[in-house]
Design goal:
Layout lengths: L1 H4 L4 E2 H8 L3 H13 L3 E6 L2 E6 L4 H24 L1
Antiparallel strand pairs: 1-3, 2-3
Helix pairs in contact: 2-3
Length: 81
């Protein structure tokens, strides 16, 4: 969800489609992110639109993913020896 929100604001239904989860699950996760101060919400009509408050959060998660991938690759090489 953070990666998706990194490209701009989205409503719950859009996030559910991108992530592949039901809207109730998405809403629960967004509530946690909101309570942590990581996302902002704006209500427009019947929909609520979420956006990242901390724009660098998506880049941070990409960095963590890169580190995990490098560690996984190193572990696979070590196990092959």
């Amino acid at each position: 969800m953070v990666e998706a929100l990194g490209s701009g604001e989205m409503c719950v239904c859009e996030l559910a489609e991108v992530v592949g989860a039901d809207t109730s699950t998405i809403s629960k996760h967004l509530a946690l992110l909101k309570s942590a101060g990581l996302v902002a919400v704006e209500k427009r009509g019947l929909n609520q639109y979420y956006s990242l408050k901390c724009k660098c959060l998506a880049a941070f998660f990409q960095c963590v993913d890169d580190i995990n991938e490098k560690n996984s690759l190193a572990l696979r090489k070590a196990c092959a020896l």
